């Protein structure tokens, strides 16, 4: 959007309107201008304007509506704009759930039009052209320019809430204006009123589609093209241009009027205050002879007539404005109108109330902590008959705690929080509405609101607290393959009920379950049966650690221990990453022609009897060397390479002796290379692996030859 304005006007409005249905989520509005080194133009928070980062060139020159964050009207008023203020202004919004919107406005500030340069240039051109012999042409040109008149810029100021304002344009020409002219009034670049062929057409409507502009019925006869603008609003401020065209669409007359709409008086109050005064003092009237009516938006809130308060006319509050409990919905614009006995408006004033919201507060905790405090301390007195509600509102809606009439028990509290939430014994006296939440769980993370209601159910106070419950920190455990066992640690500090369920998983495979005070082997994966165990009394000892036996290479990875309550909600969770290191590569040297060599592989850990061990040459080429499976050496099987037939041998009972070494006989130079032994369980999972590099040296290369000798 582009906004144009003349240098020297009192102010200009940069529009920024967002839907009212999302305005309740606004946390802040930020206007900035990116081409500046210090780009911040204006910041509005829930607590009010924040000028600490504002560019100094905009000091005391910017303002927003008092109810901007509540209504979504974030338009910026820039006072005394100059040419240097031209540029791109961005309206940014920060909302509660983290997303944000952005609107760009291009502001163009130009020098106002002047009459004398036009006339002067015409005269100078006339002189030059006359000297050149074109006198007749210049005469007619000058005459046409002189017939177009631009009136000086006029400033008009009005208070918001007044019935109307007059944008004056009375012509002083002795010569009558032609009857076939067209008169246009524009606001910025928008047409608001047209007079043509003895007919007025208003293009600016109110919410009830009634005309908001009006011109005289016969402006040509009385030479008055003034525009009457009804019900002036903040958005009406800016530049108005009236242009009179002849039948050829040439401009005959033009005038610019700058309208300034003054904002109403603003009263700021903090939620929870007992009362606020909306000021309107006058010494002109005797209040006994008039009717005084206060309205909040379109609703009557108070009427005084014949010297008495007429409470029966009120639609909202049955108490005087200076003596009522402030509610969450009291924010907004209030209009006080004074009527005569004949119901004529004598006086009118607009006051805006801004009810500051308590800022959103962040609280961090780690699961398993004994308790955490969700803070909410107030400064104002609260009546004893209020009701205080703590709720979880995101990611789901649950009633957490209710305090009412000095009773800390309520049947409406959600069962998830029973016995886990509490408030101070006398929160109204201590002015401390904070909530203590005990035995923290991951599922406690979310957005909590504390809302205070009066006896009529009207909201007095509200605060939002965001709680983030973090997991137990990730822990790393490292072990070498072949070791007998490893401990995956998980020690807790909190007391757990006996009806909980503890589940250890390895990459979505259940490896151990503890429930109903015993281990549940039927729920475990077959490959882990007999290989896992927990403390006999894990809840009593507060030790949920898992011992994993018979380590395999496939055991590496992340293990997650999750503790559930009887309803299936997660109470605790921890991740342990297990790293299983392989055996180091071993070097073996031997001479060609030797009878045999031992390629070693001795283990220390447990191995099941139904394993399969494969020895392979893996470098410089791949060949099957020897296979042991289910208690048998399969050296003569078809999958063994012919070159190794009858040349390999393993221990008859390698599982019992824990010796998987390979004997290779009748050594050749071509036997050099890398040999790898891989052990699999019956399901084909890799349990162990070791590589041995064998170097078979040429016997001749080790014989020293004397000079001149031969072999």
Characterization of this structure:
With 711 residues, the chain is mostly beta strands. Helix content is 7%, strand content 43%. The chain has seven helices and 51 strands. The strands form eleven sheets. Strands 10, 11, 13, 14, 15, 18 and 19 form a seven-stranded mixed beta sheet that branches. Strands 1-9-8-3-4-5 form a six-stranded mixed beta sheet. Helix 2 (116-131) runs antiparallel to helix 3.
| Overall outline | elongated
Number of beta-strand segments: 51
Radius of gyration from the CA trace? Answer: 44 Å
Indicate the multimeric state.
single chain
Portion in helices: under 10%
Structural class: mainly beta
Strand content: 35-45%
Mean pLDDT: 80
Most strands sheet? 7 strands, mixed
N-to-C span: 101 Å
Poorly predicted ranges: 133-146, 312-324, 704-711
Number of helices: 7
Give the SSE map.
Elements (H helix, E strand, L loop, with lengths): L1 E5 L4 E4 L11 E7 L7 E6 L2 E2 L12 E3 L3 H4 L4 E4 L7 E9 L4 E11 L5 H16 L3 H13 L1 E2 L3 E6 L4 E4 L14 E6 L2 E7 L2 E4 L10 E3 L3 H4 L4 E4 L7 E8 L5 E12 L2 E6 L20 E6 L2 E7 L2 E2 L22 E8 L5 E12 L4 E6 L4 E4 L12 E8 L3 E7 L16 E3 L3 H4 L4 E4 L7 E8 L5 E12 L4 E6 L4 E4 L12 E6 L2 E7 L2 E2 L12 E3 L3 H4 L4 E4 L7 E8 L5 E12 L4 E6 L4 E4 L12 E8 L3 E7 L2 E2 L14 E3 L3 H4 L4 E4 L7 E8 L5 E12 L14
Parallel strand pairs: 1-9, 10-19, 11-19, 20-25, 26-33, 34-42, 43-51
Antiparallel strand pairs: 2-7, 3-4, 3-8, 4-5, 6-7, 8-9, 12-17, 13-14, 13-18, 14-15, 16-17, 18-19, 21-22, 21-24, 22-23, 24-25, 27-31, 28-29, 28-32, 30-31, 32-33, 35-40, 36-37, 36-41, 37-38, 39-40, 41-42, 44-49, 45-46, 45-50, 46-47, 48-49, 50-51
Helix pairs in contact: 2-3
